[in-house]
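pinned: reference chain
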Amino acid sequence: MNVSLFIPCLVDQFFPSVGINLVKILRKAGVSVDYPRAQTCCGQPAFNSGYHEEAIQLARRFLEVFGEAETIVSPSGSCTSMVKVFYPEILQDPDLRRQLREVTGRTYEFSDFLVNVMGIKDLGATFPHRVTYHDACHLFRELGVHRAPRELIRHVRAIELVEMENSDACCGFGGTFSVKFPEISTAMAQDKSAAILKTEAEYVVANDSSCLMQIGGYLSRQGLPIKPLHLADLLGENL
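pinned: its structure tokens
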């Protein structure tokens, strides 16, 4: 099987290790990997801000770039849900309907792909630390991915996974939401951080870099020692 990487903007600009480790993980899983260099933003920031025409242009671009891909995998539930859930809402061109259906059907968030497509739960990673897991909104609510990342974490050697209260409560980032409503966003991050603290975890793990940036930023400003960690980094760095 060949996998084409779909790398979100935040990963490209701020969390490149996530993309690098995803390549390591996929190769460990026995698939070949390519990175289409023509890819750009999926259009979610424009879509969420009401600029639907701009989002449609980027959706068309995605279909052009990934139209022939055998399988498309991304380390982001948020951007994956933009493709699978929201592209069908904004792309109403009947000439693209078949291609859109085929491309969205071949697009996966990486933990979902590993566990539910490849049937892989144990990659052989070791991480002797106490962690808790945050359910990112789009991954959980739009894509229904809840079990897969936990299966991967539980099969890491020497790890201790402690569930936090309200693990599916929003962290407060929400893209432009955190810019437009900073006070509400900060209060939500405070609530999320309080739930994390109760677990006494050393790391908070998630599958979206945006959530980790929000949570990690709040924890850092409060001088709290808990570290944010993308699941791809947890697995890839410790194989």
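why pinned: The domain at 130-236 is CATH 3.40.50 (Rossmann fold). The chain has two domains: 2-117, 130-236.
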